[in-house]
Amino acid sequence: MSFNNILGQEAAKQLLQNAMRREAVSHAYLFSGPAGAGQLETAMTFAKALFCTESRDDACGQCLECRKVEHGNHPDLTMIAPDGASIKIDQIRELQRIFSYRSEKNNPKVYIIDHADKMTVQAANSLLKFLEEPQVPAVAILIAENGQALLPTIQSRSQTVPFRALNPEMMEQALVNEGYPLALVRCAVQLASGLEGCRKILNENWFAEIRNVMLQLGKESMNRTGTAMITASQKVFKSGLSEHLDTLFSLFHLWFKDMIHVQYGRQDRLVFIDQAEFISGHASARSTAQWVSCMDLAAECQKKLRYNVNGQLCLEQLLMGLGGTQA
Fold first, then answer.
1. Three-state secondary structure call for residue 309
2. Pick from 148, 153, 89: nearest CA to 122
3. Which of the four pLDDT bands, split at 50, 70 and 90, describes residue 282?
4. Are 134 and 99 in contact (CB under 8 A)?
5. Cα-to-chain-centroid distance, residue 102
6. Is the whole-model pTM more than 0.90?
7. Which residues are the signal sequence here (predicted)?
8. Sign of CA dihedral 82, 83, 88, 91
C-alpha cells in the first residue's frame, strides 16, 4: 500500500507528502472525517512512509521497514483502539511506557489512536501531557469521526487533516474492478461507508439474499393487498434473514427512490440497474407524492426497528402501508 493506492483524499495525501518532502513532519496529526473515508489506511501508509528507507515521501512496500509495518511487527509503531466502548487511561499509560525506550534506528516512534474521540477524560488528559512532552521523537496520528469531540487542547496541539466521504461512483468503479457484481455494488455503495465497509457486506452471503427478498416483495407490493404481502413476508423470518431487517428497509427506501428517478428521467441514477425495465414500466403506477410516502414509511419502520420494536411488526406495518398507498 502506497499513497497512490488510497482512493480519493488528494488534499490529505498532498499535505502529508509535502511535510515529508520538506522534512517538516508535525509531532501530531488529527485525521478527522466520516468513517470509512480511508483514515486508517492513510495512517498506516504515512507510518510506513516515515520508516521507509527507499522513498522520501511515500512507502515503497518492498524495504524491510515497510514489510515490518505490513506484517504488524514494526517495533516503532504502536496501534491503540477502544478497549470495549472506550480508550482507557491504562492504554495511554502503556503507550507512555513503550515510548520510554528509544527507537531501533533513527526513526521517530509512531502511534496511531483509532477512534480517538472515544478516549475517557482521564485518558485524554494523560495523552495531552504525552503530546506536549514525549520522551523520544514521536509522531501521533489520531483518527476521529468528529475531531471536535476531542479536548480543545489536543486539537490545538495537532495538525488537522480533513477527510471527506468517498464519492459513490469512485467506490463503485474500484469495487467492480475488484470483481464484485455491479448490481450488488450499486446497492453497497449506498449503504456502507468507505471501501472496507462495502467489501464487508459484499462478502456476506445474506446481502444478495436480502436484496432478492426486497425485490420480490417490492414487485409484489405493486399488485397485491397488504394481507397477502404479510404472508409473503414470512419467508424473511423462515430463511433466517430477520437479523438484517435494517438493511431490508434501507433497500426498500432505495427502491422507491429509483421509481422517482424514472419519473424525472434520471435513469442514470438508478441503484437497481438490473431491474431498470421493471422500474421503468411501473414507476407511473403511483404519483411522486405516493412514492415519497413509501420512502417515509420505510424510514419510519426502520426507526422503530432501531428503537427495538418487534421486527416482524415493523415489516408487517411497512407491507400493509404499501398496500394502502396504491393509486
1. coil
2. 89
3. very high
4. yes
5. 36
6. no
7. none
8. negative
Which residue, of 162, 183, 218, is where some domain finishes? 162
Q: Inform me whether the pLDDT recorded for 235 exceeds 90.
A: no
Residue 53 makes CB contacts below 8 A (sequence gap 6+) with 63, 64, 65
Exposed e or buried b per residue across 187-208, where buried means at least 16 C-beta atoms within 10 angstroms of its C-beta: bbbbbbbbbebbbebbeeeebe
Asked if residue 302 and residue 213 are part of one domain, the reply reads yes
Confidence band (pLDDT; 50, 70, 90) for 327? very low
* 3-class secondary structure, 142: strand
Residue-number span of the structural domain to which 14 is assigned: 3-162
> Over pLDDT 70: what percentage of the chain?
93
Q: How far is CA 27 from the centre of its chain?
A: 27
Amino acid type, 312: Q
Residue 324 phi, psi dihedral angles, 5° rounding: -95, 0
What is the mean predicted confidence (pLDDT) over 124-142? Answer: 84
Kindly list the distances between the CA atom of residue 230 and the CA atoms of 281, 300, 323, in Å, as whole numbers in the listed order: 24, 18, 10
